[in-house]
Amino acid sequence: MAVDSTSALFVDPVMTAAGEPRALVKLTRLETLWFNTGTLCNIACGSCYIESSPENDRLEYLSLDDVAGYLNEIEVKGLGTTEVGFTGGEPFMNPDILAILRLTLNAGYSVLVLTNAMRPMMRPRIQAGLLDLKREFSGQLTLRVSIDHFDATQHEEKRGPGTRAPMRCFACWAAVLAAVENYACKTDNHSRASSLSIASAVSTEPLNA
Ligand code: SF4
Fold first, then answer.
1. Percent over 70 (pLDDT), the chain
2. Which residue's CA is the nearest one to ligand 1's atom 6?
3. Banded model confidence at residue 154, pLDDT cuts 50, 70, 90
4. What is the mean pLDDT of the chain?
5. What residue spans define the domains of the chain?
């Protein structure tokens, strides 16, 4: 349910409208820091948690400067962060994404990117950048690919017509990248990670991007 931040009920972050202290959980540790890279996506899944689409730009693209500021803050505050996650929208539509990933990996964090692994990720510039990152930061970078169903028809029921075929291109290329450690299999909106390595199951034929 959307919260109206202008409502009188929520003007005081410490006290309730009835004059009672609000419940408070003190932040002592931030193991994983999540960033939303922007709400734009190349597709519009019916079950998308944030209603991403090629038109939805309600959350504008996260910039390199934004990320630098937050990474500096967690360092200064000593929050014990070990992992930084990126989701969208489709993160590989963000023009700064490669620079953002490099900055985060350089800072020593494990990086997790949630992606639909379609055209935005498969553009030559992004492929080349990911291969560079893979070479420089082996083991630090994980791409988690959202697939709604192993059956193409059922996958496309949720993701839309024509969304399954690009996954096959991705699977070929992932054998080269070998940075993919697991898929996020989503069934009935409940996500579960299945540590399914695809590197041994696909061919390495080049992608026509
Ligand atoms: S691919 Fe992901 S971000 Fe894009 S519309 Fe589908 S669920 Fe939303």
1. 76
2. 45
3. confident
4. 81
5. 29-195
CA 88 from centre of chain: 5
Q: Which atom of ligand 1 is found nearest the CA of 53?
A: 5
Nearest-atom number in ligand 1 for the CA of 41 is: 4
Q: How far is the CA of 49 from the centre of ligand 1 (A)?
A: 8
Tell me how crowded residue 110 is: count the other CB atoms within 10 A of its CB.
Answer: 17
180-132-44-3 Cα dihedral, nearest 10 degrees: 90
The single-letter DSSP state of residue 2 is -
pTM of this prediction?
0.77
Quick one: pLDDT at residue 4? 54
Tell me what pLDDT residue 6 has. Answer: 54
DSSP 137: S
The rounded Å distance from CA 24 to ligand 1 centre is 33
How would residue 80 be classed by pLDDT, with cut points 50, 70 and 90? very high
**CA of 28 relative to ligand 1 center, distance in Å:** 32
The residue whose CA is least distant from atom 8 of ligand 1 is: 48
The yes/no answer on whether domain 29-195 falls in CATH 1.10.287.1080 is no
Predicted pLDDT at 9? 73
d(CA 142, CA 117): 13
Per-residue confidence (pLDDT) for residue 129, from 0 to 100: 94
Task: Check: CB of residue 62 under 8 Å from CB of residue 48.
Answer: no
DSSP strand pairing (190-194 vs 182-187) = antiparallel
Helix locations, the chain, DSSP H: 64-76, 97-106, 119-122, 124-136, 152-159, 165-177
